[in-house]
Amino acid sequence: MKLVIIGGLSGGMTVASQFRRLDKESEIIVYDKNPYVSFANCGLPYYLSREVAKREDLIARTPDQLNDQGITVHTEHEVISVNDQENYVTVKNLQTGETFNDYYDKLVVSPGAEARTLDAVKDAKQSFIFQHLHHLDQMDAYISENDVKHAVVIGTGFIGLEVTEQLKKRGLNVTVIQHNDKVYSTLEQHFTESIKQVFDEQEIRLMLNTTPKSLDGTTLTLDNGETIDAELIVQAIGILPRTQFLESSNIVLDNGFIPIDEYGLTNIDNVYAIGDAVETNYQHVPNKKVSVALAWPAHRLAYIIANHLAEKNNHKHDGLLSVSILRFFDITVGSMGLSLEDLEGKDYIIVEQTQNNKAGYMPDATPLSMRIYVDKYTRKILRASGVGENGLDKRLDILSTLTRLGGTVDDLIDVEVSYAPPFSSPKDIINMLGYKTIRKLK
């Protein structure tokens, strides 16, 4: 069998590696438009401040190492179209401009997403997006070579906040611009008050309800008429699925996303899809569609696709819980389950609890706040979210595991959280959410 994979990283590259372990004979070819195909994408921001000390620590496998594994990798080669009737892809060599066709028996589409950009700043030499290792290299070099002191980050989502933190730790003065009044909009805004407080504590200027209008050298003019110093600009205003090249194929797209089945298959029986451009469903609410641009879903689906390709077992993809977590200096925020928008139309109650993350008499105990949304009839936890300095990850993991295994809010009072005063409380916040919800439902 000849397997062609479009795109590397957590999706395509993980499929390639796992399939090679299961199948030693088939030919595996990977095309990626970028210079690197196997690196720790999630770790990129942390090299800016040298929290990750060595750049090479971010690289998982080089093309030569992958070739030694029997995986042929072509970097800076962009697949520009797919012919699913005759089973070939058309590839453009971005270094030479040459185009050619390559035939496949099976195809895995892992194109990822492309960053949104603003016309006012996108062509400036000091303006960067932040998705790939070469973006990190370019930004890192630009900061050093130009002795940058003032940076502007546009957007307060995942990447915006992580890059803001790391640029500040590097010693830059940072201004953050957000087009509306919401910070980290995927989270309840009363939880994000803690994030806004950190902006003040770290002396990072946060400008809400404003957008860039024009740029003259390093002077950025905003739509409110104010001008700010912008020696460096980072655009972090969201992503779009990179699937335009599929529009001439018979692969079904839904608003640009690629719907998949329980094995990662598209509507074409020898074409799989994985990664940021994939559309699937919530595991606990199967009738709700979701796309999750995170590493865990890609790694999990890669395992399923590789096994299905190798005909080794019948592992199935049953949906996602969209578990996410973010550190912003000393604050951690996160959520699992339905988005705030996807809660619409559901009949639920909200229960919130704030208490210390461990025994209150311990000197390093800190407050932890969590909220759960519970279906009135099924008693399932539809969504959970929270904020705190320590311990939020542990509680979200408990709730996601319970939900994935079919548990309800009634099970929370019986969850045995590992207890000793340095770790939790005899009645952990998880247990208290259960008690309060059961009482409220009665």
Query: End-to-end span in angstroms?
Result: 59 Å
The biggest sheet amounts to:
5 strands, parallel
Spans where pLDDT lies below 50 across 5 or more residues: none
User: What is the count of β-strands?
Assistant: 26
- Helical percentage: 10-25%
The dominant shape is: globular
Strand-pairing-aware structural class? alpha/beta
The average pLDDT score comes to: 96
**Nearest-angstrom radius of gyration?**
23 Å
Strand share of the residues?
Answer: 25-35%
User: Helix segment count?
Assistant: 9
Biggest sheet: strands side by side, in what order?
Answer: 3-2-1-7-19
List descriptors.
alpha/beta, five-stranded parallel sheet, 9 helices, 26 strands, about 25% helix
Question: Can you walk through the features of this model?
Answer:
This protein is of the alpha/beta class and 442 residues long. It has helices at 9-22, 45-48, 63-68, 133-145, 158-170, 193-201, 295-310, 392-404, 429-441; strands at residues 2-6, 27-32, 71-75, 77-83, 88-93, 99-103, 106-109, 113-115, 127-128, 150-154, 173-177, 205-207, 212-216, 219-222, 227-229, 232-235, 239-241, 258-259, 271-273, 278-281, 289-290, 324-328, 331-337, 348-356, 367-375, 381-388. Helix content is 23%, strand content 28%. The longest helix is centred in the last third of the chain and has 16 residues, at 295-310. The chain is globular, with a radius of gyration of 23 Å. The mean pLDDT is 96.
